[in-house]
């Protein structure tokens, strides 16, 4: 696996797994301890097949008490642990680097409660996002987040990585919608902050520290989350724009005219659409433009929403912002249009090796990075594409090549990070740092912030057993706490 | 001042202010050091006049560098500091308990930048909320929070206390809308997390720890905040309901029918309206109901919004949920209706001494606490009233008496906290714990969470100089870190 060579790390002096350890776990959770080489294999490699660990043990607890017992034991024995949800992460955060024990939330998939008056769902960490959404839809609600990996990703992993996705523009981030968490700390003690209150100002908001900490500060075992009502009317428009400037102007116009019903504003360049068509055989409803945007509205009154949308489209066409387009109001066509956007990641993997970047930038500069990168790399890259959540200032920059090469990576990095830092952007908008990006944190965070993060890590996980080699650069040698 | 007797605390062994200290500060910020007894007086007492400190010194820095120098000096000399914004807090968090130096943000009132494309405002901590909102309105935006104290409260104080207020139902909490913070830590070092990005997943979200920490972990010096567009149409309905059950059913109905344009759902009981009429001479548009609700819609199309609202009102009247009501669409009448709700706090102060409680509860049980308290206190209280942000499950329970009495307080506390804990509610939904509520934290937080909070405090402020005696109960004697 190429990236491991690049990001050379040394195994920390954790204990090695012994037969007695496995025997302990088998007594603790009989039948839910995976040791066979073949069976463990799938847990060792990430979805992109870009990083691979060599764990010999997967544990599948069903309860918080079991997670507590596992961590208490590992803490005592100095065994490293890799918490794993649906293993859909894109930065190598969800698989072991060496022989860490994999703690999978796959069997922690119970819905604990749902309150129809408040819209508050409480569930175990291993619930699959799409299953939760289906459950909620039956009751007239939806999950406040949605992403391409919804069919496999776990809500615990979503929270641990502060997943963004397609609904953030409308419903905000998990930092607002997650109301409570239950977390097991490195020493096995359970921290119960699983409240179901919209507002609670009694002391520091501890749960925030675990949101986005990528399993390095504690293992999330249950989540309380505020879910919005299912919109009565959904419309999707897929439009072609002749320049990125027009993509931006279309955004400003639609935000003003669609207002509170705008629920997504995604963009993608022509190359993305070519790849989706070529590799996945999806048919394209609109062609011949260098840029495309997908606009979604979600509202409570279909007549009003359609009127707002058609007023907007009329103006966008009349003023030349948009040159071509199609609109969908029925579920099937809406899904087809969303596929064109959601399946870009998948189409890219058919190209060969993919260098993935997930960047936050001031929205006006979003596509300059793609243009600059394309010019810089010339023919050494197969394709350089840009797409993403324009409404949130989030660019997904992807570069493909037949296979991995050191020299191409050297041409991309640290250029891409320096470029981003030059615009005060973030080198990880929503994917996290995981294993692959952790040494680049200083491009987006001042040294003092990194030191403070290391102090939190040292305080909450003094032995460093939780998801080692992830998120934070190696601690400096001097004492931190 | 009555509450000080109740919450007996002992002065911690901080250094006493000496002439040399004052001389140092006068060299650092000439003309912005307040020492006269009369001039300092107003900074020593809270808005409710319920707690009073005896500080002899107020410092008014203008820059982050000055705040750094002040804290570095105080840290070195072991001088305690009370950070103070607009001093509008309701739990005694914003005034000194003993002789802490008051660090006022009053002169840190500069707007640093505003970006019209993204709606992101960056400003110093001492900007007054209402001034910021006026500035934004000129550019077609609004602040994502609004509260009764807007004319005096500072944005830094709002963030430090995680203020909720009247727009939370629509725009979410500050945990989602605050994008970045600049904070000066106890030792004087400045932590720059003042990013202006909608999304940033590079490491732990440090700023969250300072949001709602009431000045005990650091002094917020600047804020970056995401502001929504100013709604094109605002409507307010003021309705009477014959029972609290109907208030709840009206909420469910209006949430379904108004959907994305619902921006506030406030309730108040008849007694509140009587007090507002009697003490403030406000005229009441609707009378004769035991409960009233104020519903606000904010949207982008006045025709659509009015249609949605009138459909809802028709149904609410036809089904007997609502028995009487009035609707406002022009600014002046909207302000008058909002006054009936916003000025309840002020009206209550005319009654004598006010015992204030700010409780989060499952929405269905919200008024049971008022009823139970009224029955419990009988004639020993002058009035027992309930109002608040029903849409957020937030009750403001207020009890008045001619003057403060120990025995009445004993009848209220800890009953009110036990009742709340029995429903897994929060004893402080939005006001914070400050000085007056800190010893009750265990009613809403498990012991382990409190210990963890104390560890964070010990790590970030090892000498405990920042806003001492606030938020957290006194640390147990054993070492914490």
Would you mind describing this structure in some detail?
Two copies of one chain form a homodimer. The radius of gyration of chain A is 23 Å and the shape is globular. Chain A has four domains: 103 residues, Uridine Diphospho-n-acetylenolpyruvylglucosamine Reductase, domain 2; 116 residues, Uridine Diphospho-n-acetylenolpyruvylglucosamine Reductase, domain 3 (2-Layer Sandwich); 112 residues, Alpha-Beta Plaits (2-Layer Sandwich), CATH 3.30.70.2190; 90 residues, Alpha-Beta Plaits, CATH 3.30.70.2740. The C terminus of chain A is likely disordered. In chain A, the strands form three sheets. Chain A has a seven-stranded antiparallel beta sheet with strand order 13-10-12-11-15-16-14, sandwiched between helices. Chain A is built from 18 helices and 16 strands. Chain A is α+β, with helices and mostly antiparallel strands and 481 residues long. At the A-B interface, helix 8, strand 8, helix 10, helix 12 and helix 18 of A face helix 8, strand 8, helix 10, helix 12 and helix 18 of B.
């Amino acid at each position: 696996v190429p990236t491991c060579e690049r990001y050379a790390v040394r195994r920390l002096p954790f204990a090695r797994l012994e037969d007695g350890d496995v025997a302990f776990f088998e007594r603790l959770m009989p039948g839910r301890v995976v040791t066979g080489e073949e069976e463990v294999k799938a847990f060792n490699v990430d979805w992109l097949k870009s990083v691979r660990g060599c764990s010999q043990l997967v544990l599948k607890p069903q309860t918080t008490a079991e997670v507590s017992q596992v961590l208490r034991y590992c803490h005592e024995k100095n065994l490293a642990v890799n918490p794993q949800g649906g293993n859909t992460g894109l930065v190598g955060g969800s698989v072991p680097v060496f022989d860490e024990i994999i703690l999978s939330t796959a069997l922690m998939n119970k819905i604990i409660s749902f309150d129809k008056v408040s819209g508050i769902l409480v569930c175990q960490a291993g619930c699959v996002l799409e299953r939760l959404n289906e459950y909620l839809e039956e009751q007239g609600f939806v999950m406040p987040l949605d992403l391409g990996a919804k069919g496999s990703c776990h809500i615990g992993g979503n929270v641990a990585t502060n997943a963004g996705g397609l609904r953030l523009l409308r419903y905000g981030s998990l930092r607002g919608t997650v109301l409570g968490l239950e977390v097991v700390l490195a020493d096995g003690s359970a921290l119960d902050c699983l409240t179901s209150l919209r507002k609670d100002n009694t002391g520091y908001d501890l749960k925030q520290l675990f949101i986005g900490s990528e399993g390095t500060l504690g293992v999330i075992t249950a989540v309380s989350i505020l879910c919005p009502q299912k919109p009565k009317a959904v419309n999707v428009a897929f439009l072609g724009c002749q320049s990125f400037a027009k993509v931006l102007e279309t955004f400003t116009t639609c935000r003003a005219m669609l207002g509170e019903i705008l629920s997504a504003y995604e963009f993608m360049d022509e190359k993305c659409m070519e790849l989706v068509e070529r590799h996945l055989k999806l048919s394209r409803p609109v062609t011949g433009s260098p840029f495309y945007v997908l606009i979604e509205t979600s509202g409570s009154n279909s007549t009003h929403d359609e009127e707002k949308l058609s007023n907007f489209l009329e103006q966008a066409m009349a003023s030349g912002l948009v040159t071509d387009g199609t609109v969908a109001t029925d579920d099937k066509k809406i899904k087809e249009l969303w596929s064109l956007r959601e399946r870009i990641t998948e189409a890219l993997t058919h190209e060969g090796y993919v260098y993935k970047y997930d960047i936050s930038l001031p929205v006006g500069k979003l596509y300059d990075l793609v243009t600059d990168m394309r010019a810089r790399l010339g023919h050494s890259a197969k394709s350089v594409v840009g797409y993403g959540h324009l409404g949130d200032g989030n660019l997904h920059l992807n570069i493909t090549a037949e296979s991995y090469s050191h020299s191409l990576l050297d041409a991309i990095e640290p250029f891409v990070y320096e470029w981003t830092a030059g615009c005060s952007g973030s080198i990880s908008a929503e994917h996290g740092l995981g294993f692959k990006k952790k040494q680049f944190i200083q491009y987006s965070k001042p040294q003092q912030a990194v030191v403070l993060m290391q102090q939190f890590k040292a305080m909450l996980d003094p032995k460093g057993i939780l998801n080692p080699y992830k998120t934070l650069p190696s601690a400096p040698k001097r004492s931190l706490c």
